[in-house]
Amino acid sequence: MKKSILSVVYLSIHLAINLNAQVLNSLELGNGTARQRNASFNLEELKVRWKKAALENCTGVPCVVAPSFTCGSSTISDVDNNSYVTVLIGTQCWTKENLKVSKYNDGSPINFNTSGGPLGNSFGEDWSTQTSGAFSIYSNDPISSSNASFFGYLYNWYTVSDARKLCPTNWHVPSKVEWQALETQLGGPSLAGGEMKQAGSSLWTTSPSGTSGFRAQPGGERWGSDGSFNSVNGRASFWSSTETLPTIPDYLYVDDASTAITFTDAGYEFGFSIRCIKDL
User: Which of 74, 72, 82, 71 is closest to 274 using CA atoms?
Assistant: First the structure.
């Protein structure tokens, strides 16, 4: 018994001495990176992190272990530091809010298009003739508006297809197949729309059952033909990442007057909401 206790004590002392030696060696060698990182932690913190590193096969000091993710209770953040709650529906993990990010994942800005005034169609051809990624806010409200925070942004499909990506790391814009899997999980074409709506929302005039937790809100659209804003409080429309025909990608909508979900297609220049789904 004494021998076991002595072994544990010896091992702890050995680890502490070894750790101190490695930290000092890094500093003596003039490793600027190591010097900067080690200065942020006291000795006791370094000991704990070094042990974690050994357990997780990490290299270097310190090794920070990422927190575990639990769909439904964990949140995710985009590059603008907007936070999104999540929901597990069947085997799919979704964001419960529409995307409202103004940059691609590499930090490149997305064009914030404010052409056309409150209706969008006064000189709205500027929106309609875009040939690269752009986003808008319903009624051309500012980013600080309630429309922006409540409904998120309306994106054209150039943003969806851009290789720099919109959704946070390990998340993506869902394909048509993934949307159809959600449809099946929520009872099929005639019922899924009602299940997607946010229960108790005063913005839906029909009574949504909304048991899925998807929390769809009728954020409207921006039309590609003239840039006009339409269907706020009447329709929630979402892009898919699928392009069934060239220049005609797929999207879906949930209408206020129905519990159905409808799949259709539109041109790249239309503006719809975006939800993100977790990578498998």
Answer: 82
